[in-house]
Automatic annotation (TrEMBL):
<keyword id="KW-0378">Hydrolase</keyword>
<feature type="domain" description="Peptidase M13 N-terminal">
    <location>
        <begin position="41"/>
        <end position="417"/>
    </location>
</feature>
<dbReference type="InterPro" id="IPR000718">
    <property type="entry name" value="Peptidase_M13"/>
</dbReference>
<keyword id="KW-0479">Metal-binding</keyword>
<dbReference type="InterPro" id="IPR008753">
    <property type="entry name" value="Peptidase_M13_N"/>
</dbReference>
<dbReference type="InterPro" id="IPR024079">
    <property type="entry name" value="MetalloPept_cat_dom_sf"/>
</dbReference>
<dbReference type="Pfam" id="PF05649">
    <property type="entry name" value="Peptidase_M13_N"/>
</dbReference>
<keyword id="KW-0482">Metalloprotease</keyword>
<protein>
    <submittedName>
        <fullName>M13 family metallopeptidase</fullName>
        <ecNumber>3.4.24.-</ecNumber>
    </submittedName>
</protein>
<keyword id="KW-0732">Signal</keyword>
<dbReference type="InterPro" id="IPR018497">
    <property type="entry name" value="Peptidase_M13_C"/>
</dbReference>
<feature type="signal peptide">
    <location>
        <begin position="1"/>
        <end position="22"/>
    </location>
</feature>
<keyword id="KW-0862">Zinc</keyword>
<dbReference type="Pfam" id="PF01431">
    <property type="entry name" value="Peptidase_M13"/>
</dbReference>
<feature type="domain" description="Peptidase M13 C-terminal">
    <location>
        <begin position="469"/>
        <end position="669"/>
    </location>
</feature>
<comment type="similarity">
    <text>Belongs to the peptidase M13 family.</text>
</comment>
<dbReference type="GO" id="GO:0016787">
    <property type="term" value="F:hydrolase activity"/>
</dbReference>
Amino acid sequence: MKSTFKLGALALMIQLAGAAFAAPHNHGLDLPNYDPAVRAQDDLFLAANGGWLSRTEIPADKSSFGTFVQLRDMSDARVRAIVEELAKGKQPAGSNEAKIGAYYAAYLDTAAIDRAGFKPVQPHLKAIDGLKSVAELTRWVGQVQGEVATPFAMYVDADAKKPQENRLTVYQAGLGLPDRDYYLLKDDARMGEARKAYLAYLQQLAGFAGEKNAAAAAQRIYALEEKIAQLHWSTVENRDPVKTYNPISVADLAQQAPELDWAALFQAAGLPTMESVSLMQPSAVKGIAKLMADVPLADWKLYLKARTLDSYAGVLPKAMRDAAFAFHGQALSGQKAELPRWQKGVAEVNGALGEAIGQIYVARHFPPEAKARMEKLVANLLAAYKDSIDGLSWMSPATKLQAQDKLSKYMTKIGYPDTWRDYSRLVVKAGDALGNNQRAGRAEWLRMAAKAGKPVDRKEWGMTPQTVNAYYNPSQNEIVFPAAILQPPFFDMNADDAVNYGAIGAVIGHEISHGFDDQGSQFDGDGVLRNWWTQEDRQAFDAITAKLVSQFDSYEPIPGKHVNGKLTLGENIADLSGLQIAYKAYQRSLAGQTAPAIGGYTGEQRFFLGWSQSWRVKAREQRLLQLLVIDPHSPGEYRANGAAINHDGFHQAFGTKQGDKMFKSSEDRIRIW
């Protein structure tokens, strides 16, 4: 798991397929997919995407479709070409190329997986059957870290107050439904349907595990998960870096949660001897530990069997795969058909050997000139941000000085890491799909576990080059842009600067802004979690962001379901601030000249149209419901319009006036960075 505080993931990663983004027209403006009947002054999102929305059906194997999904498809197709080439050829024994090819080929061989049936997973189920005590249950939870979902989980990353050191964090987990709300909101009809589907799935899992009374077993598993859900912190609480940073000595943890032998748990997980750890949600972690002692061991065994089968569903026989899709794909996400097996295989091998594939990917698909142009864009955006901080009316000189210090220390990573990950310890066997999955998960966990207590390696990346995403990491004060996002519609080497600044420029600004959103702003330039603000400045900042919370709280994507303004605040700040900074950077790039009109649009108009068309998306209701509960990002149309409506440049570019649906008076516009 990546650190919760890697705040800047630009979009929740969705493993979906689709066609490539429409070829750019008029230097980046995708005019055929605009809706000429809609004025940007009334709805910027529909103006730039209405034609596409009216003509596009979400493909059957998708729960959502749009820019990010389309780019993910492009990246997946490129990875597919790489891995299939390696799978068909003869590679040196033990090489990364051989491991990639064998891993992918084994996953795609569903005939062999079906012939093996449930035999490959039986040793795991028998091990669970053999658990005789809470002590053995505790060790089992440690032994399967990285392989199977457990009641609580662990990761190792930079300590929030000592970011040069790695620390183990224990956090809440253990739910089969997407979030605690699915268990706790009893009056929500949509979540009620999800609960019904989950109980049916649990009954199938119990049957596959050999339980004679599968229906009763499902009820017992669900009852246990509901108890776990009652302990979980909310998604909004989990966004608070101060509340979720709770270092504790292992000795004190043993005293405060004596139900478990924590030292034995950590040892079983392969962790080095540690004096202290951090609890992300102390009450939840300790509460789950108490449940492990209080709930009958027989119920825990049922639960663990269900979690094990669900974790390995993709490499188990067809009946198991079909059951998993019926729940995860259809009931929770609204998909009508499964993703093609090759694309699932790409996701699996990316997870197991991602940087080994990435090394080949960038050699084929990321030319040096793209990186050089991106470096120039980033430098321009950082310069614009510096000027913007100087011009803030609500911030005092003392806090501005601290903000400028932080900005000056940003580290930028573009395209791919300088040092590639070592996969020499990962054992991949031909024809062993489940074993490969298990060993890959455990190898990655042990690689991370070994870092506990050691210095942080600032060269490491949290995403592979072929990932269509970007992020800001506050503990390292770094912005990271993988190669796969640096393509149209975000970044086009041949496109007009206005569109590039509105798209990739706003992406860059978005990630820079995460260092100054409600979470990232609590870390200083060295990545230390500390308050570097004056009290008055923080109060002024909170007052401004409260208005943004209210704005997004008012949006209602599904009847009766609103955007959660507090959950999405960080991303909404980054969208708004990123767009503002990108616009300033674009204006700087003109050096006082006026951009020529293209396609009937001024340079300033093209900037905002480029921004809007990059958020093109459609989603099924089930998926949208899930995202509204768990995703810190707002739906695409509200990202496009919600930031633009507060931007002075937008209103100037399109001449909005009273009566236009996107008109907002100057005094009511929200301006942060």
